Amino acid sequence: MExxxxxxxxxxxxRFQFKTRRSNNRFIVCVLAVLTLFMGVRTWWxxxxxxxxxxGWSMQQTFQNGDNLIMxxxxxxxxxRRGDVIILDVRDYPECGSTDFLIKRLIAVEGDKVKCEKGxxxxxxxxxxxxxxxxxxxxxxxxxxxxxxxxFDEYVVGKGEIFFLxxxxxxxxxxxxxxxxxxxxxxxxxxxxDVYGVVPTWGIEKKDLIGVLFFHNFSKIKATIKY
Length: 227
Hints:
Elements: H1 2-8, H2 10-48, E1 49-55, E2 68-73, E3 85-89, E4 101-108, E5 113-117, E6 120-124, E7 152-156, E8 163-165, E9 195-199, H3 201-205, H4 207-214, E10 220-224
Parallel strand pairs: 1-10
Antiparallel strand pairs: 1-2, 2-9, 3-4, 3-9, 4-8, 5-6, 5-7
């Protein structure tokens, strides 16, 4: 009888409402925390990564025309590694015409020397006096008419410069300015400061999945890789 009277009392009603409000408040706090975390992660992601639409064939077979990729923005303080897939901002180069961005493979950096003999890339690394005996391992390189038909003379990478190539070695305009039609620039190499972003390794390995899941969230640039 006493329990029934308690249940019917206003005190019980107040306690019930208090517990309900407290439960609702906890739910709202949890939802707000999740939304705040999501927005924070999304803001960080968009500030650090961007989308690329591949336009052309000079990175074949690594990338195909029309591929959607993700790049990580970089500045001059970020370390670049030989072998990185880099995005270059060439909007300040009149020689590049309507091309705004390039996507290529970084081969050599400041202080290096590089040459190619029958499709084999050799590097004399900065601080060394001799070329490496073994050629660069390039599982990504593609030669339409065979490696033996592809060579170029030595390039010395000067202060603040970089040397890059397209993976499709016989169909790419890149750093080879000594060759007719080998570069947009007729007498010099591109600069380290031209590098706008890097396609991360995981972005290459999972490019199909990442493009579907995340690509629509990014501001996109068209990276020309043919000429």
